TrEMBL record:
Chain sites annotated for binding GTP 2: 205-212, 252-256, 317-320
Designated name of the protein: GTPase Der
Organism encoding this protein: Psychromicrobium lacuslunae
SMART domains xrefs: AAA
Membrane-spanning segments: none
Biological function: GTPase that plays an essential role in the late steps of ribosome biogenesis.
Length: 455
């Protein structure tokens, strides 16, 4: 009950107004004991003092609404995350990586009195890969004597190190001014990989399921000739087709149209092409033919699509060839072999006659909408609070792992992170995933639920 109340109330300070955009996110990372939590408390100032009145609550939180000079931002505190001694470097770097994924900018905190340690180095390696702004903080610079220690941090190659004493507040205002300079007005975490333009579709399936026929049927007179280059004979790799009043980009169609007759390694190339198409696409249409038994190759291609994290639509082609016996068999196949993708919209079509070809666009729209979807943190935690109250995690050895907080770390596809006090049983995680789908939809997109455990 207490947990439910906590989860429901936890998010009161966050504003998830889509119109205005989400507050920019600042993550504080660094190895244990450099003073991250102290710095978080310092930045939150008075607001945090209120939270501290409730013992235990403070340490349980991960994301905090913060403010400086009238600007709101969200602070991600990685301070309380626990690590086991085994593989600690790896774990620390992983945690930091998650924080960076969530963030628009990163504060990398180093203990200036200790200097750069091996663990700082492991984090650095990861941080160097991100394009997001990183601000280097030399903490515990309590007085001027430590400033020379801070200056040695220039050597890290992360730009100017900021001398700060989280404990005494020294340098914190300057640091916050700097943070405001690098943070965008609204969070851009959502939109960084949005490339715009027509939505990109990969039409995939084993040879002879009818990809080329479907493409022809869809294109018909709707083919959009984009930017024709005079005098070139080069095949366009992608095809632009107008469907439902919008232009869609079918990626890598050249491979579909140019029928390859390769005796050897055909499977390998087909699989490579499928993966390349998926890589470029936002949504996959996996074509299956109803006149033949679902083959191993069909299943493999489907698996590639699922693993690619793209939105997914299943299209059952050659419906004109379906007879009653085959229909019964197909239903069984769907139940048995496709149970793990019951979340994908299914359309029955005939590429040959064009039957139901207009059903494809609504299915694509549904899948892409789910793929793009973002559940506001407040709603997610209200959902988790209710769920946990009604169905607590089963006791395990007298202990009960608790969910402290959840957030949707990213979309396209949606990925959720739950911060917990212990490992959740796989069954319980599946239960949460199922309820997420029941509550929020997500038809046509894979979703991922992961945990961050605080022991
Ligand atoms: P975290 O594990 O990175 O979150 O580190 P904590 O915030 O828990 O701090 C670790 C220790 O360093 C605590 O004992 C803090 O009191 C101490 N500490 C944090 N900031 C400062 C600082 O600016 N100066 C000094 N002298 N000690 C600090
Ligand atoms: P691809 O290898 O996946 O591109 O498949 P094709 O489009 O070349 O189709 C393979 C064969 O299936 C061809 O003989 C098509 O005419 C046939 N075919 C494709 N779609 C249908 C359909 O909906 N109904 C029927 N009866 N045949 C189809």
């Amino acid at each position: 009950e207490e947990d439910a109340a906590l989860l429901a109330g936890l998010d009161a300070g966050f504003e998830d107004d889509d119109e205005a955009g989400l507050d920019p996110v600042l993550a504080i990372v660094g190895r244990p004991n450099v003073g991250k939590s102290t710095l978080v408390n310092r930045i939150l100032g008075r607001r945090e003092a209120v939270v501290e009145d409730t013992p235990g609550v403070t340490r349980d939180r991960v994301m905090y609404p913060a403010e400086w000079n009238g600007r709101n931002f969200t602070l991600v505190d990685t301070g309380g995350w626990e690590f086991d001694a085994k593989g600690i470097h790896q774990r620390v770097a992983e945690q930091a990586e998650l924080a960076v994924e969530l963030a628009d900018a990163v504060l990398f905190v180093v203990d200036a009195t200790v200097g750069v340690t091996a663990m700082d180095e492991s984090m650095m390696k990861m941080l160097r890969r991100t394009k997001k702004p990183i601000i280097l903080v030399g903490n515990k610079a309590d007085d001027q004597r430590t400033d020379s220690d801070v200056a040695t941090l220039w050597g890290l190659g992360l730009g100017e190190p900021w001398a700060v004493s989280a404990q005494h507040g020294r340098g914190v205002a300057d640091l916050l001014d700097r943070i405001m300079e690098v943070l965008p007005e609204f969070s851009e975490v959502e939109t960084t990989d949005r490339r715009g333009g027509p939505r990109r579709v990969a039409l995939i399936g084993r040879p002879n399921v009818g990809k080329s026929s479907l493409l022809n049927k869809l294109a018909g007179s709707n083919r959009v000739v984009v930017d024709p280059l005079a005098g070139t004979t080069r095949d366009p790799v992608d095809e632009f087709i107008e469907l439902g009043d919008r232009t869609w980009r079918f990626v890598d169609t050249a491979g579909i149209r140019r029928r390859q007759h390769m005796a050897q390694g055909a499977d390998f190339y087909a699989s490579l092409r499928t993966q390349a198409a998926l890589e470029k696409a936002e949504v996959a249409v996996v074509l299956l033919a109803v006149d033949e038994v679902l083959s191993e190759q069909d299943v493999r291609i489907l698996q590639l699509a699922i693993e690619s994290g793209r939105a997914l639509v299943l299209a059952f082609n050659k419906w004109d060839l379906l007879d009653d016996e085959r229909r019964r068999y197909l239903e069984r196949e769907i139940e048995q072999d496709l149970a793990h993708v019951e979340w994908a919209p299914r359309v029955n079509i005939s590429a040959k006659t064009g039957w139901h070809k207009d059903r494809l666009v609504p299915a694509l729209d549904t899948a892409l909408e789910s793929w793009d979807k973002r559940i506001p943190t407040g709603r997610l935690n209200a959902f988790l609070g209710e769920l946990v109250a009604a169905h607590p995690h089963p006791l395990r050895g007298g202990k009960q792992p608790r969910i402290l907080f959840g957030t949707q770390a990213s979309s396209r596809p949606p990925k959720f992170v739950l911060f917990t006090t212990g490992f959740l049983d796989p069954g319980y995680r599946r239960f949460i995933t199922r309820r997420l789908r029941e509550t929020f939809g997500f038809e046509g997109t894979p979703i991922e639920v992961s945990m961050r455990v605080r022991e």
